[in-house]
From TrEMBL:
InterPro entries: Beta-barrel_TonB, Beta-barrel_TonB_sf, CarboxyPept-like_regulatory, Filamin/ABP280_repeat-like, Plug_dom, Plug_dom_sf, TonB-dep_rcpt-like. Residues 363-752 form the TonB-dependent receptor-like beta-barrel domain. It is a multi-pass membrane protein. Transmembrane segments: none annotated. This is TonB-dependent receptor domain-containing protein. It is found in: Cell outer membrane.
């Protein structure tokens, strides 16, 4: 760790010391950006290979001043339009005028992405398929958090895994949450503890977009990128802007059996300030949410947890001359959630309570320096710290309070070199994390601290350290992309060396060296027709995962998860092939993608569960299955834009996920994994001010274990097959122009036909993990947004 920090500091100092600044800055570039004759405000303009940039004003005009004479490449990028590039030469004291006409990109094929190869390229030129969840999708689907928007990408499905606290995860190509690597601004600092509830922690208003790559990504991003990679990119400060939004939802309107709808209120704001010459800029964002618990079957126990979230964050940059820039990210999330019953009483006085409070702080610092024409050196450090107080207990237990502390540090250096027909990425990266989980023991009521007849604090006795894990992974990675006429070949590899130690366990320190190769081939059969083939390797180290930090609680039993002392790393081999056709016909555009995937899991993790002990505790022990497992299937995507005002998008997945040999319940199939699922969105801009949006999610049948009290042998449980679900929503928005600002009013219904689970277990002895299908019942919502730029 010390060595890599020294390398980081040295790289920054050397890069900054040798960057020369030209004192002769007498030229400028100005102009206007339009599309089909109309000006486009708030468009970003850059000089390629430098940090020099600007954005168009309300009149769609821009001005780049104080430029040294010489050769430049002008770049223009804006969502919904194809990128623009033009080479220019500036003379002394020249003011060059440019009127730039942008071409619409209604299918998003020319959108710039960074996740596929760890450098900026367009989706159409990327050798692997990269799907993008834009701010428009979050807006169209009324997704106030990241988790709600993930259902609208092929191969992805969000699921709720706990009736009490709402522990959720995203499945990608049939593989559960820990098989996907979650990145924040391309950094793997989203820890196992953050993954328990983290996808619902992150508000959508802090996200610029989310890039999703299906298939193994360990060659670039290290462990756990077996099913794929989800990269959360935060909003950049580009132009002066502000936005304020309010949303109010009523969960469970008209649902039989529920007492009354639960309210879900959220408030968010965004503001950005950029210097006059864009030398520096800063953005701020905030989010406040208050969701009441929802009881679907009238048994006084919640099916959707109480939730309170306060998020504050900022992102800023400062340019160190014309070819260097430093940027800083910071955000803090405080979230409280609780499920069970008797919410007006302390946790230990409820019949069931699963409650957690997170204090999550993330910070990241990045230095970027351009060399030659377009080479880029990046030096980065990112950290995340979490403190979680928890209670997982039943029957007024005084002994089920806990505390977990987690810290993750990611540092690295990356160099991107561009040549005439090829690109090279090389880098080193180190990720260090610590996790300490402890059970606080019994509350000592007799020694409570009382001030003015009120209990201020209650001490705990018999505190026990459950886990004290330290993990370090050092990685070397490289990727080389070569373009030969219609063919693009991408070769990548990563060597990781990891060590995992639990100081509270007798198990030996786990170490391993993992080589993860990657091969991608892109071939342009026709200008509008592409084929892709890929092979990639992935792995999961034998560490503590998110489900280990969640405890299922009921009056009859408690479920905990542990790793077998002999647990070995799991590896994977992923194969993917796709055909991608897209074409514009006059005013309409059409695109279709067919993607086949097959992932073979070697030494796959599976669970062995014990009989309940004298306290009703059931232990799920993670072990390696004797034989392998596989997931395979087909993803289909359709984009159709018959006219500029109407957009249709749909995706569907057909798959199977199985172990080679039978596991729990003498069954080979993965549980909670439907063999088919999909989505659609229809966006119709009826006029400049009215917009109508329809959305839908289909979930096929799946196998779900049940250990409730309505069966003869709840200790042994039984395997049930769920129904199919079709969740349909409708949203209407009205935009009103107020001076140079916009006021947007919206309203709609999610899950109109209440396609929702109707056999929840009930009472204190219920099985809280018997949850499947859509995450919310019929929900009516209203929203308001005001600002000068509305997403």
């Amino acid at each position: 760790m010390k060595k890599i920090i020294i390398i980081l500091i040295s790289a920054v100092l050397i890069s900054h010391s040798i960057s020369a600044q030209d004192s002769s800055k007498s030229a400028s570039v100005s102009g206007k950006i339009t599309s089909k004759g109309s000006g486009i405000p708030y468009v970003s303009i850059f000089l390629k290979g430098t940090t020099i940039g600007a954005s168009t004003d309300d009149n769609a005009e821009f001005n780049l001043t104080n430029l040294a004479p010489g050769f430049y490449t002008v770049q223009v990028q804006y969502v919904g339009f194809k990128p623009f590039e033009e080479h220019i030469e500036l003379q002394d004291n020249e003011n060059k005028k440019m009127n730039i006409e942008l071409e619409p990109d209604v299918l998003g094929l020319e959108e710039v992405i960074v996740t596929g190869n760890r450098y900026r390229t367009t989706r159409k030129k990327a050798p692997s398929i990269v799907n993008v969840i834009s701010s428009e999708i979050f807006q169209a689907t009324q997704s106030v958090t990241l988790s709600e928007g993930l259902n609208f990408i092929s191969g992805l499905r969000m699921e709720n895994d706990c009736q009490n606290c709402g522990f959720s995860q995203v499945r990608m190509n049939g593989l559960e949450g820990p098989y996907s690597q979650i990145l924040i601004n391309s950094r793997p600092i989203f820890s196992g503890l953050a993954g328990v509830y983290g996808l619902e922690l992150i508000p959508s208003n802090m996200i610029e977009k989310v890039e999703v790559i299906r298939g193994g990504g360990s060659a670039l991003y290290g462990g756990n990128a077996v099913a794929g990679t989800v990269n959360i990119l935060l909003k950049d400060p580009i132009q002066n802007s502000f936005e304020l939004g309010v949303n109010n939802s009523f969960i469970g309107v008209g649902v039989d059996g529920s007492d009354s709808p639960a309210t879900d209120y959220s408030l968010n704001f965004n503001a950005t300030v950029v210097g006059s010459e864009q030398q520096s800029g800063v953005s701020f964002y905030g989010f406040n949410r208050n969701r009441k618990p929802f009881d679907a079957n009238g048994d006084s126990f919640s099916e959707i947890a109480l939730l309170k979230n306060i998020t504050l964050g900022s992102r800023l940059f400062h340019k160190l001359g014309t070819r260097a820039k430093v940027s800083l990210d910071f955000f803090h999330i405080n979230e409280e959630r609780r499920g069970g019953n008797k919410f007006d009483l302390p946790n230990h006085e409820a019949d069931i309570s699963e409650a957690v409070e997170h204090d999550l702080t993330t910070a990241a610092l990045t230095f970027e320096q351009y060399y030659r024409e377009n080479d880029l050196l990046s030096v980065f450090v990112a950290a995340q710290k979490i403190n979680r107080d928890s209670y997982y207990g039943a029957e007024q237990s005084l002994s089920d309070y806990g505390n977990t502390k987690d810290f993750t540090l990611n540092t690295g250096v990356q160099y991107n070199a561009k040549f005439k027909t090829s690109d090279l990425v090389v880098g080193i990266e180190d990720t260090y994390s610590t996790l300490k989980d402890k059970k606080l023991g019994y509350l000592d009521i007799d020694n409570a601290v009382i001030v003015d007849n009120e209990i201020v604090s209650i001490p705990h006795t018999n505190t026990t350290i459950i886990s004290n894990q330290k993990m370090n992974t050092f990685g070397l990675f490289s990727q080389y992309d070569l373009r030969i006429n219609k063919l693009k070949l991408s070769l990548g590899a990563r060597l990781d060396s990891y060590s995992i130690e639990n100081e509270e366990s007798d198990a030996e320190k786990k170490t391993g060296n993992v080589f993860s190769p990657r091969v991608n081939v892109l071939y342009d059969i026709l200008p509008d027709f592409q084929a892709r083939l890929s092979y990639s390797a992935g792995y999961r180290a034998p560490q503590i995962f998110d489900e280990d930090l969640h405890i299922e609680s009921s009056g009859s039993r408690k479920v905990i998860h542990v790793n077998d002392p002999n647990l070995q790393q799991e590896t994977s081999d992923s194969f993917m092939a796709s055909f991608d056709y897209s074409r514009s016909y006059g005013a309409s555009s059409f695109g279709i993608l067919v993607e086949g995937f097959h992932t073979k899991l070697n030494n796959p993790f599976t669970n062995e569960y014990s009989a309940p002990d004298e306290n009703g505790t059931v232990t799920y022990t993670r072990v390696n299955a004797e034989d392998g497992a596989f997931v395979q299937g087909i993803n289909l995507e359709l984009n159709y834009v018959p006219m500029a005002s109407l957009k249709l998008k749909a995706g569907f997945t057909v798959q199977e996920s199985k172990y080679e040999e039978a596991q729990e319940f003498d069954e080979k199939s993965f549980f909670r994994t439907p063999d088919s699922y999909g989505f659609f969105t229809i966006d119709w801009e009826a006029s400049d001010s009215w917009c109508f949006i329809a959305t839908g999610n289909y979930t096929g049948k799946m196998l779900v274990p049940y250990f409730g009290t309505t069966i003869d042998n709840p200790e042994e449980g039984e395997l049930r097959e769920s129904d199919t679900f079709f969740d349909v929503g409708l949203k209407i928005t009205k935009t009103i122009k107020i001076a140079k600002n916009n006021l947007e009013l919206s309203g709609g219904i999610k899950n109109i036909f209440n396609s929702y689970q109707d056999d929840f277990d009930s009472g204190i002895d219920r099985d809280p993990a018997y949850v499947y299908g859509p995450m919310t019942p019929r929900t009516v919502y209203f929203g308001l947004k005001f600002g000068n730029i509305l997403n």
